[in-house]
């Protein structure tokens, strides 16, 4: 399996003299697209209703659970990144920690898969899930992840989203109610202007 993992990596990873436009695209998705995930959560909170906010709390819990699981997996099974074994070409400076599973994709897909489970949040979930695909390519292309790291992220994220969907009804609504105690007074001027929802 590891030989297949490395072979697939070398097929996707940047060449010794990569095209500058492709590198720029890879950097966009591999380094910066991840910020669309918290931006989606914040914008959804500010512009959505309380039902959507419950889905966002559930998605946030899914992300936290998935990232915790990813850290535990990384400690229990420290898989080296490609550059740690001298494989391929690396286009960014990255810490020499465990590669499996990808934290970027775990975070993105844990939120996306959670949102996909609810009709009122499905559009945002679809967009984030799709953004994860070029993000996955980019993380391999720039040399910091193997293809199986991406598969691992999808599995961890899917399980986390499923668990939070099962338990969300117990914690999401109380968290939203508690948050509203601070949110509505703090954002009252913006609510009155219609810039954010109540």
TrEMBL record:
Alphabetized, the UniProt keywords read: Membrane, Transmembrane, Transmembrane helix
Q: Which Gene3D superfamilies match?
A: Phosphatidic acid phosphatase type 2/haloperoxidase
The answer to keyword Membrane applying to this record is yes
- Report the coiled-coil segments: none
Q: Mind telling me which Pfam families this protein's record contains?
A: PAP2
* Gene Ontology molecular functions: undecaprenyl-diphosphatase activity
Question: What are the record's GO terms for cellular component?
Answer: plasma membrane
User: Where, by residue number, does the polypeptide cross the bilayer?
Assistant: 26-46, 58-79, 99-117, 124-144, 150-172
Which CDD domains would you find in this protein's record? PAP2_BcrC_like
Keyword Transmembrane annotated = yes
Domain Phosphatidic acid phosphatase type 2/haloperoxidase intervals: 54-165
Protein name (Swiss-Prot/TrEMBL): Phosphoesterase
Can you name the source organism? Caballeronia mineralivorans PML1(12)
Q: What is the lineage of its organism?
A: Bacteria, Pseudomonadati, Pseudomonadota, Betaproteobacteria, Burkholderiales
């Amino acid at each position: 399996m590891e030989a297949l993992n490395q072979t697939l990596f070398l097929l996707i990873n940047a060449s010794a003299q990569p095209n500058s436009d492709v590198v720029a695209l890879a950097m966009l998705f591999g380094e910066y697209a991840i910020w669309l995930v918290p931006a989606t959560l914040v914008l959804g909170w500010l512009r959505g209703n309380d039902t959507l906010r419950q889905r966002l709390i559930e998605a946030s819990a899914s992300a936290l659970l998935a990232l915790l699981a990813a850290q535990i997996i990384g400690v229990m099974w420290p898989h080296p990144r490609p550059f740690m074994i001298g494989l391929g070409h690396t286009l960014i400076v990255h810490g020499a920690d465990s590669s499996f599973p990808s934290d970027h994709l775990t975070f993105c897909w844990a939120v996306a898969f959670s949102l996909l489970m609810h009709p009122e949040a499905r559009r945002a979930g679809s967009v984030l899930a799709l953004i994860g695909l070029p993000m996955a390519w980019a993380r391999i292309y720039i040399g910091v992840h193997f293809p199986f790291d991406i598969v691992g992220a999808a599995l961890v994220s899917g399980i986390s989203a499923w668990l939070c969907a099962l338990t969300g009804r117990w914690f999401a609504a109380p968290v939203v109610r508690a948050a509203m105690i601070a949110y509505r007074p703090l954002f009252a001027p913006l609510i009155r202007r219609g810039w954010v929802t109540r």
